[in-house]
Amino acid sequence: MAKEGVEKAEETEQMIEKEAGKEPAEGGGGDGSHRLGDAQEMRAVVLAGFGGLNKLRLSRKAMPEPQDGELKIRVKACGLNFIDLMVRQGNIDNPPKTPLVPGFECSGIVEALGDSVKGYEIGDRVMAFVNYNAWAEVVCTPVEFVYKIPDDMSFSEAAAFPMNFVTAYVMLFEVANLREGMSVLVHSAGGGVGQAVAQLCSTVPSVTVFGTASTFKHEAIKDSVTHLFDRNADYVQEVKRSSCDTILREVPSLCHLANFCSENRPGEKRGRQEHNYPAHNARISAEGVDIVLDCLCGDNTGKGLSLLKPLGTYILYGSSNMVTGETKSFFSFAKSWWQVEKVNPIKLYEENKVIAGFSLLNLLFKQGRAGLIRGVVEKLIGLYNQKKIKPVVDSLWALEEVKEAMQRIHDRGNIGKLILDVEKTPTPLMANDSTETSEAGEEEEDHEGDSENKERMPFIQ
Amino acid sequence: MAKEGVEKAEETEQMIEKEAGKEPAEGGGGDGSHRLGDAQEMRAVVLAGFGGLNKLRLSRKAMPEPQDGELKIRVKACGLNFIDLMVRQGNIDNPPKTPLVPGFECSGIVEALGDSVKGYEIGDRVMAFVNYNAWAEVVCTPVEFVYKIPDDMSFSEAAAFPMNFVTAYVMLFEVANLREGMSVLVHSAGGGVGQAVAQLCSTVPSVTVFGTASTFKHEAIKDSVTHLFDRNADYVQEVKRSSCDTILREVPSLCHLANFCSENRPGEKRGRQEHNYPAHNARISAEGVDIVLDCLCGDNTGKGLSLLKPLGTYILYGSSNMVTGETKSFFSFAKSWWQVEKVNPIKLYEENKVIAGFSLLNLLFKQGRAGLIRGVVEKLIGLYNQKKIKPVVDSLWALEEVKEAMQRIHDRGNIGKLILDVEKTPTPLMANDSTETSEAGEEEEDHEGDSENKERMPFIQ
């Protein structure tokens, strides 16, 4: 176990925190190997407090050392997920204290091994889940959250891989049991998880994918999604209309009965027996989808459930509808909790429906299911090697550009995953770059250090 | 299509209904081939109105003839299910009008084929689902609800087979995806579905079954259920206690970390990183079960959900807690609807849980999934032929004894399935048989015809 600099660690941290309160160390550059006392330093994105984009800044922090069972990873790339926006706003259940280093996934090279670690060597190319702290030059994380990557997988791909593909895989195959001939509705089909869902669906024969996404993305993603609808459309009607072509699928041998109804059939009285018309039943029951994957929440829960076919599964795995222009969202999580439509189990019984929720981070970090996830990652790497799946990377951003990157997600502008490339130098601001106010507006202007920031950031918060 | 006697059918029915208002035709006997006009007659159980046991009587009704796509079956045995009690009380969603002939499953011999029917011959031994009307000497039902039975399967077994085993199978393998090493909690483990669940679980390696059942049944069913609890016990505590032996199952290689906690580890500060102790996580998450199958409802919904492990599934498939001593339950269904605890989707998201409802009858008769069910029945017959499953028959009752049979279910006295044996003659009442009032008490005494019935029935309603 690395114990160097223990006595000075606290002093170091105080200095770093003071540093974090000032302007970000933009000139740090390189590998950030700036030493304070005995502890090495590194660049890291720091969230100073919950709120708007300007609560994020680049800072210098003490480099972590691996504990028992951990690996130290020299980070090459980090994944930016929607949950990171919610963290920034403090819009999650039981948020941690700030300041903190955000980020839950990254890729890089193993640099040191903690005690007890087996199966890894310095120099291994890996991707990993981290319980916060990913957006930094170095991370340490328990070995059960680390996975070796194929030689031909780039670090950007690797940082785009675990969160989205594991989420998609577990929802489709562990929670919902997707099989041949089924249909799936996925929102934000152009995003990281949406694209992963579409690709995994294509590995199962005859699966129909319905997706909602901003219309401007449709051209780019139309090959992966069978039916695309605009994200603001009445997708409930659209899905019902598109899915009802498969009439009489259940009872083809009796399709001629579709024309019989009780008024036409004299003499068929048999007491009070309910007349059963399988053909009619099949027409009604063919509307809808087998699986609904919802990252929006809000009123989409009720809509999603209404779209389910019998034995269909609705899965809530995000609440992007909670992310608005507000900066202080201390009560948004609670508000959503109370506003979301509650589900009556007896209604599920009457309609033969399934409703689930899925949080990969909770499964990993609170519920100890790392072993299950490792099995899933191995299957996914297999699919990658067979060229059946491949992460879609939207754009690469320097650590210093994290605000612009987040703005892009706020704008729902991305097709695929946004990556923080640790070795990328920030793109200089061009004279004609826009400085218009973003949608992720500030209710309280925080002017500390802003005058210098305005030149860096094309979008003013 | 059989059209004989169309013109006289209405007149016949009026005569039968008058007949049904009188004493039951107890002396009908034999095969009930009593002819009124051109229509043949048969014995059938009739529910005159919703309420107590005395609303049931044996009657004569016109024998049905098969329509297009239907089979006519000479019934040998009928299944008695808990749902039949709820029907009798009118305690279901959107109940049909009375009088009606109850019953949803039976077995027998094919006697006639409607037009368009292929694949069956007169004389075939079959079991079938019927949308009401099963408790009679003859039923007609669409061919997609009829299944041929193995030669060595008795009619009693066959009438005990479809409802319970299909329900158990679909819940375990289609809704919940039971796999090796998982655990299941099933209530009323001694009943028809409970026994079917236990048997199907034994076909998967290393599945632990927790069951609740009246203590007097435990000796008889202990071989099929791993852990048995009394039905009135605090099963939540019992299950948690029994299931937490599998600690550290997820991360055996780090079990030594169980002794480390933040107070013991100086110098491990790494900013605000949440300390993650996989070993501790595994101990907590090992409590509980993967699947909860609930036929009780009421407050068992919340309890069942609390017992789920991450990615576990709770399935509501009945509401036997609704069946009390009341006779008029017009509002019980509505009351249950409002009283049952509603589920918050965000809570499912935070805890990684799945909640479902399952109604086989709705799946068959309202939602057109006969094709799916046929596939399930075929698999089940395969398991029967391999001697891996075998219906447990509790007792055989004559049609005239349907009230006693129902009383036995009210009393939760059965181990396995109750069967109405159409050819059985009623057992004479012995001098020392009890006449004490049953639990299924009458709030309104209905004396019509009771003076003769008292001799027949050992239990007074």
Kindly describe this structure.
2 copies of one chain form a homodimer. Chain A is 29% helix and 21% strand. Chain A is α/β, with parallel strands linked by helices. In chain A, helix 4 (162-175) crosses helix 13 (370-385). The two termini of chain A are 43 Å apart. Chains A and B meet through helix 1, helix 4, helix 8, strand 13 and helix 11 of A and helix 1, helix 4, helix 8, strand 13 and helix 11 of B. Strand 14 (353-357) of chain A pairs antiparallel with strand 14 (353-357) of chain B, so a sheet runs across the interface. Chains A, B: GO terms for molecular function: oxidoreductase activity; zinc ion binding. Chains A, B: This is Vesicle amine transport 1 like.
